[in-house]
Task: inverse folding
């Protein structure tokens, strides 16, 4: 009976707090990870931010199960599970005792709990009006509702949905970590049919969940050899995750920066094939889908390499979806990674944001593939070599030796010069001067002699040597 009391208690609390919370969430009160419970938030908090909720969940970092005390001076309970509607599954201390132990707590507790709850909620409402240090469940609940509605409306096109316990099982409780990013961690896992997968666990719900929606929506529309496959996703209050095909060779950056991986550099023919494969993948996103998908974050870190060293474009969190016939897209702010962002994405004075913005990012990435270094390298001795695109352009224009590593014959030299020429066309400052990705594929597949030499891409108005070497964007 007491178990039912506590279930009623939290169901009522959930509804009361939805109606009482009107404020925007505060970043000081994020969801937090608590052992096997996953990510939880208001009305629960931890000892780091006890002001962020009504009930502190303890033992989140201990080997034993998390526990909670629902009323002061009352018994502690082990928390076995917190479901999406904030219902608790509890074990009375000690952990081995059965649910029959709940009968020792008095069916009069129900009235007491509801009364205490109302008082707590009213006090909490008063504090909310003057203190913005709390995560407010109402806004968060609406965000989850919006994403749930989107996933339902997506129908049969949506990939398979898994629950959080499935994610834990397939990753062996997140035992093998593959990498870490601003979004969270990536773990190796295995499906029931034996296929290896990469499980991307998102650490928090940003804004209204746009990144999560973008990734599921955009990649679910794709089917191409150079686009990573999404096998499924998890969306629960305990955590969100995306399940991808496993790429044993990791990301492209591990193979192109000689400074960090001197023993992993690829042959020039393989680099050329990778650049061509990425171009084909982008061409497909821009023209081959039922809708046009603009990626907006093309960079070596987001290019995965399979066992045959074929490239696959990944990470669609910043993608934009638009009708196939439309090229110009509206954006409220810049998106992408510094060093690869097209100038018009940062400043509209350079032109309209379109699929040509992906072309620019692709060109900057290919330059790094050829140079084996970051395009902007402040570690070199001479100022004229700091900005690689300008330095390499001057060498090509003067028909000078490029001084690139690993060139052993005429074929290697042609691969390198072809990739450089195409990439310099891709990074033209004016978007209209850049080729579409379909044209990029044609240039890469054609002969070097057929390529016209591009104009020098300038982002600086000054003509001094140092200024020509360093890019700047002035709106």
Result:
């Amino acid at each position: 009976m007491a178990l039912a009391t506590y279930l009623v208690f939290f169901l009522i609390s959930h509804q009361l707090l939805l109606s009482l919370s009107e404020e925007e969430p505060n970043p000081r009160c994020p969801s937090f990870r608590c052992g096997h419970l996953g990510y939880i938030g208001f009305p629960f908090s931890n000892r780091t931010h006890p002001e962020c909720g009504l009930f502190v969940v303890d033992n989140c970092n201990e080997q034993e199960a998390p526990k909670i005390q629902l009323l002061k001076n009352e018994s502690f309970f082990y928390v076995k599970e917190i479901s999406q509607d904030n219902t608790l599954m509890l074990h009375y201390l000690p952990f081995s005792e059965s649910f029959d132990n709940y009968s020792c707590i008095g069916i009069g507790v129900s009235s007491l709990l509801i009364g205490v709850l109302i008082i707590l909620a009213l006090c909490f409402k008063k504090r909310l009006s003057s203190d913005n240090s709390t995560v407010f469940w109402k806004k968060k609940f609406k965000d989850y509702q919006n994403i749930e509605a989107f996933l339902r409306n997506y129908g049969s096109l949506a990939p398979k949905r898994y629950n959080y316990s499935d994610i834990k099982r397939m990753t062996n409780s997140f035992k093998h970590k593959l990498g870490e990013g601003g979004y969270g961690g990536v773990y190796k896992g295995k499906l029931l049919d034996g296929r290896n997968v990469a499980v991307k666990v998102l650490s928090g719900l940003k804004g209204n969940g746009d990144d999560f929606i973008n990734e599921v929506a955009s990649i679910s529309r794709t089917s191409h050899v150079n686009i990573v496959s999404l096998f499924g996703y998890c969306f629960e209050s305990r955590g969100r995750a995306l399940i991808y095909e496993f790429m044993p060779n990791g990301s492209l950056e591990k193979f192109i920066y000689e400074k960090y991986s001197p023993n992993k550099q690829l042959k020039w023919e393989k680099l050329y094939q990778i650049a061509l494969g990425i171009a084909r993948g982008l061409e497909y996103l821009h023209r081959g889908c039922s809708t046009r998908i603009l990626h907006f974050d093309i960079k070596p870190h987001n290019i995965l390499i399979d066992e045959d060293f074929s490239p696959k474009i990944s990470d669609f969190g910043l993608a934009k979806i638009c009708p196939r016939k439309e090229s110009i897209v509206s954006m409220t702010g810049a998106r992408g990674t510094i060093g690869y962002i097209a100038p018009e994405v940062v400043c509209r004075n350079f032109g309209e944001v379109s699929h040509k913005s992906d072309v620019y990012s692709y060109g900057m990435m290919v330059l790094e593939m050829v140079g084996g270094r970051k395009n902007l390298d402040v570690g070199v001795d001479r100022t004229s070599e700091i900005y690689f695109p300008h330095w390499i352009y001057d060498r090509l224009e003067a028909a000078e030796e490029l001084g690139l590593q690993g060139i052993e014959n005429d074929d290697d030299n042609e691969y390198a010069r072809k990739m450089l020429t195409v990439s310099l066309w891709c990074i033209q400052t004016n978007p209209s001067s850049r080729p579409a990705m379909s044209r990029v594929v044609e240039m890469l597949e054609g002969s070097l002699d057929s390529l016209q030499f591009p104009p020098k891409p300038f982002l600086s108005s000054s003509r001094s040597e140092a200024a020509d070497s360093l890019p700047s964007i002035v709106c």
Remarks:
- The chain has a mean pLDDT of 76.
- The first helix runs from residue 2 to 20.
- The radius of gyration is 27 Å.
